[in-house]
Write the structure tokens for this entry.
Amino acid sequence: MPAKSATAMAPTPALVTGESSTKQKSKAANMTSKNTGLVFNCYSLKRRMKAARVGRFIRPSSVVYMGAVLEYLLAEVLELAGNCARDNKRKVIKPRHVMMAVEMDDELKPLFSDVTMPGTGVVPGVHPCLQGKRDQNTFKGWSRQSLSKGQMVAKE
């Protein structure tokens, strides 16, 4: 066996001075809800962004920003849907209330223009082009004919 060199046997300076060795702090971004102040889980949002192939590298700051925007939009839609449910004397927000809230809001309507929400029904109201003008001949037909003629024929 060859002799060990002096450099390999030298003790580390931290052990010589008597200090306890501490683990070096990680340089990874801490995206916990405590640090970001968000309700959304930023780690699962980052995983979903990676799965959707948003980009090759996703910065932690962009994940937090995206989470903040989504959380704001969710709060806005739920507030309007809650108001709509309360107006309809309901205590539970249903998909119908979400759709009604989005359709009645001028800022959210263009954002949800291409979205199809199942189980929401249709927007109430009749389009103005379908409301034709009524005149005296609109309802003429078999239902408006006088019934007295038929009774007179039967008497004769």
In short: Helices lie at 6-9, 13-17, 33-36, 42-51, 60-87, 95-104, 148-155. The mean pLDDT is 80. The chain is about 45% helix and 0% strand.
